[in-house]
What we know:
Order of helices and strands: HEHEEEEE
Strand order of the largest sheet: 2-1-6
Largest sheet: 3 strands, mixed
Oligomer: single chain
CATH class of the domain at 3-69 and 104-114: Alpha Beta
Bound molecules: zinc ion
Radius of gyration: 17 Å
Structural class: alpha+beta
Helix content: 25-40%
Strand content: 25-35%
CATH topology of the domain at 3-69 and 104-114: hypothetical protein PF0899 fold
Distance between the termini: 30 Å
Amino acid sequence: MPVHEMSLCQGILDIIEERAAVDRFSRVTKVRLSIGALSHVDPKAIGFGFDVVTRDTVADGAVLEIDQPPGQAFCMACSSTVTIPTRGQPCPSCGSHQLMVVGGDELRVDELEVS
Ligand SMILES: [Zn+2]
């Protein structure tokens, strides 16, 4: 298990436990995550790490659902938002490298199903 993903899983668990304390639930049955295509995070490693860090916690046995939003960047040359597969790629419309990433680099807890 890569240390990076492990600490991210720990961070996700921290978020869940904070919400559990605020909203007073004791069981999480499903967790929806967004892991952007540009986030440098391997969703498979997150899935594995999540099972490990949530053992004996409020999220033990919770189903993990992972959305992978595509990378999005604003191209200064065409003044429009384009989809890019990875960082460092040129604009697919005009070939410019003047791109500013505007989406798909997130790692976020979107939704919790609790009981
Ligand atoms: Zn462009």
